[in-house]
Amino acid sequence: MQYQQKVNVSTTQLLLAVLRHLSSNRKFQLTQLGVLMFFSATAEAVSLGSVIPFLDALTNPARLLRHPFLNSFANYFGILKTADLILAVSLIFAATVIVAAAIRLANLWCNVRLAALIGSDLSCDAYRRVLYQSYEDYIFGNSANTITVTTIHTTGTAAALATALNLATSAFVSLFLIISMIFINWQIAMFSALLFGSVYLSLTFK
Questions:
Q1: How far apart are CA 33 and CA 154, in angstroms?
Q2: CA distance 161 to 19
Q3: Which position among 1, 114, 149, 170 has the lowest Cβ density within 10 Å, counted as fewest Cβ atoms?
Q4: Do residues 36 and 106 make contact, with C-beta atoms less than 8 angstroms apart?
Q5: CA 67, 102, 167: angle at the middle one, nearest 5?
Q6: How many helices (H) and strands (E) does the chain have?
Q7: Which pLDDT tens digit goes with each residue over 108-146?
Q8: Nearest Cα to Cα of residue 106 among 44, 54, 161
Q9: Could you read off the pLDDT of 68-96 as tens digits, one per residue?
Q10: CB neighbours of residue 171 within 10 Å
C-alpha cells in the first residue's frame, strides 16, 4: 500500500510538471478542452432532464399540455393531437441524446489527441536535448537510458495524461448529472449516490 501511494504521488507530480512546461499553444488547447468538457457535461445533464418529459409523453400526454411552456410550444407549432405531441417529444429526446453522445465522443477524441500532441512535444524536446548535448556526454552517457527516456517514458507520460483528461471529463459529467438529479428528485439522487458509492468502495477495498 505504501508503494502504491508513492506511485500516485509521483504520477501527480509528473503531470503537474508537464503542465508547467507546456507551450502557450498547448495551454490554449487545454483551455479549449476544458470548455468542451463543460459543454459535454451540460449536454449530458440536458439529455437526463429530457427523460421525464419523454416518459410523461408516453404515459400521460394530456398532463404535458397543462404545462405552460409545453402548451405554448404545442400551440406555436400547431400540435393539437396527442400522437403529434408524443412524436415531437420523442424527436426532441432523441436529438438531445444524439447531440450529447456526439459531444462526448468528440471530447474523448480531443482528450486522446491532445495527450498525443503533448507526448510528441516531449519526445521532440528530449530528442533535441540529446542532439545538442556535449561530446563528453555522448562518450560517457548511457545510450540505453536515452532510448528509454525518448520512447517508453514519453509514451507512458502521454498515456497518463490521456487518463487524467478522461478522468476530468468523467468528473465534470458526474457532477452535472448529480446536480440535475438533485433538481429533479433529491431523494433519488441521494439514494443513487449512496448506492453507487457503496458499490465502488466495496469493489475498491475488496
A1: 21
A2: 10
A3: 1
A4: yes
A5: 105
A6: 10, 0
A7: 999 999 999 988 888 888 777 777 777 676 666 666 666
A8: 44
A9: 777 777 777 777 677 777 788 888 889 99
A10: 12
Tell me what pLDDT residue 84 has.
Answer: 76
> What nine digits make up the cell of 156?
507512458
* Residue 91 grid cell: 424527436
Report the distance separating Cα 104 and Cα 99, nearest Å: 9
Exposure on the CB side of residue 95, measured as CA atoms within 13 A: 6
DSSP structure class, residue 1 = -
Q: Quick one: cell of 111?
A: 482528450
Residues 144, 37: Cα–Cα separation, whole Å: 39
Residues 43 and 9: their CA atoms lie apart, in Å, by 33
Residue type at position 77: F
Q: Which residue type is seen at 200?
A: Y
